[in-house]
């Protein structure tokens, strides 16, 4: 019964001569000396594995190598152990894809196999059409052989018992949005066993992108609309490279990022030239088109960076729009904020305004408006105290207030007309503002002398000071007003009715005053 399970070996016992095969070494010792080795089978060849014949035997050697890779010493199928039956019994794991660690299987009479077929161990996959195998032959010898797919001698299939393939333990991923100009980055993931190198190749609609072999890639305009694929390949000597392919959605058009908004420089007046400060984008567009607008309507031919205003634009707001474009990018529009309505030339003054009145507390100041060339222009007023606006003082007349005492007064007259620039006159009033005092005199006559009590009051300065002189006839006395009061004595006054003259000298803000009366001297 045991004999039925043993392998009937292929008839081929010596070298084959094929244009598709190149022998790399021969014999256990020869291959060891050449650096290829025999995986220890030289010492183990006397043992039967998977119930195959020991010694030089393709099936025993293949079973030995699979057991070395971690499989148990139990044939994984029932029935014939002939090489011809391996691919039939294990059809579920047999295909046409060579991998390191897979078994190259030959049907009967497929060179170099005889009637019982042949199996070899795949040591290296150079490409889809070139492999390197190690193999042993019944009645023959041990070899390493390079096989190419053309010219005959290519295996009938490959059995994947326990391939030596690098496997991902955490899959690669792509970070980023597939968009022109937007960086993409491949995280290569983790692999087992640890590879010695991991390579990345980017493809666009299945075609390799020249030079795109790094983990990072920035889509260019040439790949817009195409599906990108990142092919990740992990490599380790003696293993079939691990591979993963990550596809993105079709690459979307890129978007410009504005680094600076456009602005319009210049006064919006007829005859002046406005200048557009262009926006800045990243990346820099290959083309930028400018269009000027008046109240939202495009101005014919106004496509440069400057615009000279004409009377046609009077009263309209001017804006400008710049459209950036480049291959592979969405157009980007940037609009400069609109100006104030365009004005004509300034209102022209033909006769200046003037102020009538005395700047003293309680009196009225009145603006006599001048004349302007533009009919229909209106004047507005603003009174100022020491250069600062006085609250609610916006009429052509102004009554001087206590708070103005000692201050400098002025008035601004602003002439306005629609579509013209305002013209403002600044008119200074004589300063400082003063106040008119009231001098009250109460004389008292005594023998040979007159005693005079004086009180000085003034609006805004109720207790003024200052020099005071009293004359009774030809006799005079001088003194000072303190807190609005003074008391002077005029001596050696002869009896009779005499004129009494009180002269108040005033201050910086209180005007001088004279009071006249008579006194009956004794």
Structure characterization notes:
With about 525 residues, this protein is mostly beta strands. It has five domains: about 1-160, endopeptidase fold (from Nostoc punctiforme), CATH 3.90.1720.10; about 165-250, Immunoglobulin-like (Sandwich), CATH 2.60.40; about 255-340, Immunoglobulin-like (Sandwich); about 345-430, Immunoglobulin-like (Sandwich), CATH 2.60.40.2700; about 435-520, Immunoglobulin-like (Sandwich). Helix content is about 5%, strand content about 45%. The protein is rod-shaped, with a radius of gyration of 57 Å. It starts with a helix and ends with a strand. The model is unreliable at about 1-15 (pLDDT under 50).
What would a concise description of this structure say?
The chain is mostly beta strands. Helices cover 6% and strands 44% of the residues.
Structural key phrases:
mainly beta, Immunoglobulin-like, 44% strand, 522 residues, 43 strands, 5 domains, 4-stranded antiparallel sheet, endopeptidase fold (from Nostoc punctiforme)
